[in-house]
Amino acid sequence: RRVTTSVINEVLEEAVGWHSPPTTRQGRQGKIYYGTQVSSRPPAIALFVNDPALFNDNYRRYIEGQFRKSLGFVGTPLRLLWRGKKTREVDRDRVTANRATR
Known about the structure:
CATH architecture: 2-Layer Sandwich
Radius of gyration: 15 Å
Distance between the termini: 51 Å
CATH superfamily: K homology (KH) domain
CATH topology: GMP Synthetase, Chain A, domain 3
Largest sheet: 3 strands, mixed
Order of helices and strands: HEEHEH
Strand order of the largest sheet: 1-2-3
Helix content: 40-55%
């Protein structure tokens, strides 16, 4: 069954409101920009984040559990795809950030 992007984002917003993503020792925190369903058999949800490495296994299981509980995917295999920014976009962001600080 299909779930709209807006419903997925509402679940994400509530889940992040209860438990924010963990922070690394360097002070970097993961950010979830949005999520969308990319396939329905089995259900796969792509989550667009700043850096997938910033999300540990515990937080990934927590987000998966929130989707199962809120969207009714209990007992269904659910794939979460954690997609980060492409390296080109990251480089472009760094260039504009450096220009602004000069």
